[in-house]
Amino acid sequence: MKNRIYEYDCIRFLAIVSVVIGHSCYVSIGYTAYPPPVDTDPMYTNLFFTILRLLSGFVYTFHMPLFFILSGAVFALYVFKNGKKRNINLREIIYRKTKRLLLPYCLYGVLFMIPIKFMMNWYQPGSSLITEIFQFLINGKYPGHLWFLFSLFTIFVVVSLLVLYFKLNSTHSIASMLLTGIALTWIFNNQALSFPHSFEIYNIFSKLYLICFLLGLIFGYYLPLINSLTTQQKALRLSIFFFGIYLFSFVLLFKYPFKAILGLYYATLIFLGLYFLFKYLCSYSYTKRLLNNRLSHFFFSNLMGIYLLHDPLNYVILYLSSSYHWLETSWGVCLFYFSRTIGLFILCAALSQFISIALSKWKNLMTDKV
Asked: CA-to-CA distance for 156 and 150, rounded, in angstroms?
């Protein structure tokens, strides 16, 4: 794979896993509620349930900021070459990101997410399917997990404009770009946005996702220097250091209200810890062989599909578990949480692969007809 960085692949995989885990514990969302019976001992005494709740709370401290940091680091592969800025094409970036982000946002939203939500009674009673689709496309109403795609597209446009404006040939210009991003965040975070899709756009400022993306981009700019100074053993020590700082900070700050700046801080530590950990592991040939086998390729190539498909299918699992009283028995609780984690991950990967193959065959068929 051109410009492949194994460390980024591994971080992306864990980031998707963290999102699936983070969405695995809710039983009430929108106008839909599938609460377990109050006296359901099997659920509350189940070890799997306890572990999953702890993991869910853990990943929510960093998982979405981590996505934006990683996206910025990957974008740096396009922006920089050998430490120098390329001549980037804004029109090309918008075209590519429209295909990659906005098209799935619209298609999966209209053809998959909204119909499933509608069938699962997610929307307000009396709502019309056509109305909800229209509101979703025009105003970004109830975007669900797809908000990330629209927010990321917006960030790509904003950051591309910043990259075109600044020379990015020195630490001074890099710092100027970051300060501009911080200023934009401060300005728009203190204003009420009233235009369409304001929720997705406001998120990039209120949750500091624009800054997260810029930090990832800056990391990518300095990546050649970082790699040249980092030996195998030093990478392991740095990984332990950053994870240690995260755990110390988490324990120290756990009792305080969670703020966006804390999410950025945690995600930065997790990103650095994971990068250096995988840099150490990828120095061994067997690790790269593992990452290049067919199973790894299957999951890596379907990570986007897993993200797109997983959350609506959670509503289906909630409906089935409520209808068939899964949470009233120990085996049912295990089935419930297995279905919403490992089972859902595998199912979404398989569905994503099936959709990719079907689309490829359809495209070839259309090409042959022409």
From this structure: 10
Kindly give the interhelix angle for 6-22 and 63-79, rounded to the nearest 10 degrees.
150
In terms of residue numbers, what domain contains 86? 73-229
* Helices of type H across the chain: 6-22, 41-44, 47-59, 63-79, 90-97, 103-108, 114-119, 129-139, 147-165, 171-189, 198-206, 209-229, 232-253, 260-281, 285-291, 294-300, 303-323, 330-340, 342-369
Residues 19 and 117 placed together within one structural domain of the fold: no
Single-letter residue type at 57: G
Question: Do 361 and 320 share a structural domain?
Answer: yes
> What is the rounded CA–CA span in Å between residue 302 and residue 284?
25
Q: Could you tell me if 193 and 296 lie in one domain?
A: no
Of 194, 213, 229, the position where a domain reaches its end is 229
pTM: 0.92
Residue 192: predicted pLDDT: 56
Confidence of residue 42 (pLDDT cuts 50, 70, 90): low
Task: Give, in order, the Cα–Cα distances in Å from 318 to each of 33, 46, 120, 147, 337.
Answer: 9, 18, 9, 22, 10
CB 136 within 8 A of CB 143: yes
